[in-house]
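Handout for the seminar on molecular recognition.
Each group receives one record of this type.
Step one: identify the two inputs.
Step two: read the structure output and locate the region that could contact zinc ion.
Step three: write two sentences on what you found, then compare them with the reference statements printed after the record.
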Amino acid sequence: MNLSFWGAARQVTGSMYLLNFDQDYKILIDCGLDFDKERNEFENTDFKKENGFVFPFEVTEINLVILTHAHVDHSGNIPNLIKEGYEGQILATQPTVELASLLMSDSARINKIKLNAIHGKGKKLNPKTMNKLTADLYTDAHVRESMERFVAIGFERRFKVNENLYITFYTTGHLLGAASILIEARENGKWTKIGFSGDLGRFNYPLLKDPQPFPQVDYLVCESTYGNRTHEATGSPEDVICEIVKSTLVDIPGRLIIPSFSVGRTQSLLYILNKLEFSEKFPSIRIFTDSPMALKSSQIYEKYRGHLNKEAQDFYKENGSLFNFDNLTYIPDLEGSKAISNYYEPCIIISSSGMIHGGRIENHVLKNLENPYCTIFMIGFSAEGTVGNKLMTGANYVVLKGKQLEVKARIEKTDIFSGHADLKGLMHFVDQQKNGQMKNLFLVHGEADVMEDFKKTLTWNGFENVTIPEWGQHFELV
Ligand SMILES: [Zn+2]
């Protein structure tokens, strides 16, 4: 039995692990888009790379795919897997299936624009270059075929794949439908338990259930995103929103712009705003959600409200909705989007992407960044190189859509809406394991220096066999 790491190895994107056991039965755990492809060189697979393949291994040999959750860095490469010949099924929880469908369709829409641009120059390109350029640009047809392969599995149900393989999903509280996975695999009569944390969420997070207890395993693959830090924000999300609204929209006649991911983060934010609408202290201000994806995602959240926490379920029972309230307007089209950028009264504009890297948010920031009455409120992680990251790290100037802008708007940030466990949460997850029984703990999904810090903390806490795999590295599981 062996496990190889084909993504999220000393980086946070591209989650993808291959488990091989019982005479070449191969399971791919997650199949995420890698935003940092340059770092990963295919090992001994020059032919594949040269010919524009996305995956460094033979896709047709895989027997089963399992997804932890729908975020594109975990699921976004599924249609490319189909494109390269994968013929098996994909196991995931029901909400993950629907959210993944939404996200993959959106990627296919963007791919279509890119493909049209490439084919526009087609006559000038040789076939090899064309292959490379279009390798990972899947289409709607690939997404449709992917959806036919999904098999939805409930949480905490031990699902028998065959007599040598059982899969169980456990709630992680990171995103609707997000799961840690327990794989029980038998080889030569011996059972081995392998755990994959997926992305771990937080306790008491708006809408989502708390992470559930995870059973004892022989090997654990654990995320490390915040393996060396503790979330700073204190108080409740309601307190944080009240304070920012008061200082930016009540004390001054301002405009509050919140870059936010459409799937997950925006729902948490809208739910908090919805709850605040019932408070007399909260001012009556217009709120615009400018993202078609956010609307669809909100509908999926309501459809699967049985997977949300009790408070959210009770709120829905009482009010008939989680995300619709009087002052909220969803903006469906680009015309509406342009109109609200200069809305004349104090208002909140929520739009994606959360990193200010593509999406309608770019126009709102473009029009408002040089306005000292405007505040940009960063509520999530922004990768290096994005405008969001530059604003969060105090840049005085940024370039957006080819235009240099002076940062005159107020920039604020909070980690209260962060969807990832911090060091305390990660330790809570790992501490469920009896150290003597766990043969190896593999750290993934983190920057290299963060992982080294996390490993040190784990070692101080008595975990002896902690490994930080490199991209493409194989490990025998004995
Ligand atoms: Zn995630």
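Reference statements: The two ends are 7 Å apart (CA to CA). The chain has a mean pLDDT of 93.
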